Amino acid sequence: MSNYVTIQKAIQNKQQIFAIHNGYRRKMCPHLLGTINGVAHAFFYQFDGESSSGISKETALNWRCFQVDELREVHYIEGPFLPKGKFVMPDSGIDKIEVKA
User: What are the pLDDT digits (tens) for 11-39?
Assistant: First the structure.
């Protein structure tokens, strides 16, 4: 299954995923899937793993936008869809949204 399809299904089913981006192992929940200038991107909430900027206890600091083809070892993992409760999702930069949680 392609990264795109895996992320698309994770959004539709509100599932967590594991992926590696730039050598960092990440646990994330995808919230948007679409394109930026015609290139597939996904907007994630990262709740665990590694990151050059770190993982914060503040929800607003853990949003990430990645080019879908740059992700490696993408697969589903068990756990709740995050973040829970009320949250503000910052502008993703995605200009054409194809799937949204």
Answer: 999 999 999 999 999 999 999 999 999 99
Give Cα 5 distance to the centre of its chain.
13
d(CA 79, CA 76): 10
Q: Which domain holds residue 80?
A: 3-100
Torsion, CA 12, CA 14, CA 19, CA 22, rounded to 10: 80
Total of domains in the chain: 1
pLDDT tens readout for residues 32-64 = 999 999 999 999 999 999 998 888 877 778 999
Query: For residues 22-55, b (16+ Cβ closer than 10 Å) or e, as one string?
Result: eeeebbbbbbbbbeeeeebbbbbbbbbeebeeee
Phi, psi values for residue 7, rounded to 5°: -70, -40
